[in-house]
Amino acid sequence: MTVATKNIIDAYSSLFEGLDSFTKLELIERLSRSLKKEKNTKEKTFFKSFGAFPEGKSAEAINEEIKASRTFRDKDLKF
Questions:
Q1: Could you give the angle at the alpha carbon of 60 between the alpha carbons of 56 and 64, nearest 5°?
Q2: What is the pLDDT of residue 23?
Q3: How far, in Å, CA of 53 to CA of 57, rounded?
Q4: Of 25 and 33, the one with more pLDDT
Q5: Are 24 and 16 spatial neighbours (Cβ–Cβ below 8 Å)?
Q6: Res. 36: pLDDT tops 80
Q7: pTM given for the model
Q8: CA triplet 7, 11, 16: central angle to 5 degrees?
């Protein structure tokens, strides 16, 4: 355990001292649930954040789709 982690645990435990038993049990329950969650969830969320294209499409198909979706304005810029 690192010094920073120990300090965090000490800070939280001092906060918990003033709580009633029901609230402490609720915190224990939520911590237990967070430990039971799949670890893959973080990995999936990480890879979803990149906005990657769906699998199965070729690079050429994606390029053509992007080019087809482009729109241009015919606006005369007067300088």
A1: 110
A2: 92
A3: 8
A4: 25
A5: yes
A6: no
A7: 0.42
A8: 145
